[in-house]
Amino acid sequence: MTAQNRAYVFALLAVFCWSTVASAFKLTLRHVDYLTLLFYSSFVAAVFLLVVLLAQGKGGLLREAFRGPRGDSASAVPGRGSAPLVPRSGGSGTSRGDSAGSTARTRAGAHPLLRSAAVGFLNPFLYYVVLFKAYSLLPAQEAQPLNYTWPLMLVLLSAPMLGEKIRPLSVVALFISFFGVLVVSTRGDVLGLRFTNLPGALLAMGSAIVWALFWLKNLKDERDEVLKLFLNFLFGFLYVAATIFVLSRLGPAEGTGPPGEVPAEIAGSAMGAGGSGAGAIRAFPPPADLEGLFGCLYAGIMEMGLAFVLWLKALRQSEGTAKVSNLIFLSPFISLIFIRLVVGETILPSSILGLGFIACGILIQRKAASGSGASALLASP
User: Fold this and answer.
1) How far apart are CA 124 and CA 89, in angstroms?
2) Count of CB atoms within 10 A of residue 274's CB?
3) Hey, where are the domains in the chain?
4) pLDDT of 332-352, one tens digit each?
5) What's the predicted TM-score (pTM) here?
6) Which one of 12, 56, 148, 340 has the largest count of C-beta atoms within 10 Å of its C-beta?
7) How far is residue 303's CA from residue 283's CA, in Å, rounded to a whole number?
8) Among the listed residues 283, 279, 326, the one whose alpha carbon sits nearest the alpha carbon of residue 7
9) Which residues contact residue 48 at a Cβ distance below 8 angstroms, ignoring those fewer than 6 apart?
């Protein structure tokens, strides 16, 4: 098998992983609340990524990260390039950068752990808090396409943050995709603007904004990608653990329940598609039944860990980023099939039509960005 064919295999496996997680989120939220889902899944992801990091022989990079900057004489582990695996201008291929040079540049700024702590607050903590809450309010077929608007948010945010110019074709693409957002969130009643669940829709799109912010911050960090992911999830787990610990210790309002029980309006209990949901957070660590724990395990491995590792391998093996990056457009449509078969939701025509508009807008945006610095931003999910 050629390297390019291996790249296609890795990319399709990653697409399969991402195609199943919307269903997994929705099913798991029938058994646990959204904070409990993030608590256990982020822990699983951190452990999984640590195992991957050690299996790849990158323990030296991990020791370096905790040791902190020691001047230019300390270089990255030989042959383990610390630059991010993202395509450069033109979108043809990837660049790993110079290991020693990029390490020196990383160390010239903040301590690596401080950087990971800041980025880890965006993803996984804030991103998944917002996303999981959106899934608890919306049908999976609506939450998933709205979250899929992150490439559009990336283009909008890259203008002020990176100085990228928004081209006229990009404006057209934005209008097309945001029309698709209206179709999905109003279930086709675009003229009436009757949103089925406006808070849920805003949260789903808010998660796309948080992901775009994370991605732009991540571009500036030239350390090893798996190392960064592990540290992000390590800090993300600590953030959600601290949040749950505080909530579990808050006393309820008078007459609302026994000591240690947080009222649902504070804890934000999640409601599953079937109308059941986890109640207030009562203990630390938060309780979960076997079905809930299995869902957390699946989300932590398939969504937060394995899919990204497979995608990185696909990008490394591919002759050009464009040859595999377009495969990601299969994910939201395959996801609708799983949502129908596994979750049991009746897929509305508005969900398919709206997702089509969103995907069409993103494809047009990719064409508008080709040949510019923005092309690098749209090469990875």
Assistant:
1) 28
2) 11
3) 3-378
4) 899 999 999 999 999 999 999
5) 0.80
6) 148
7) 26
8) 326
9) 300, 301, 304, 305, 306
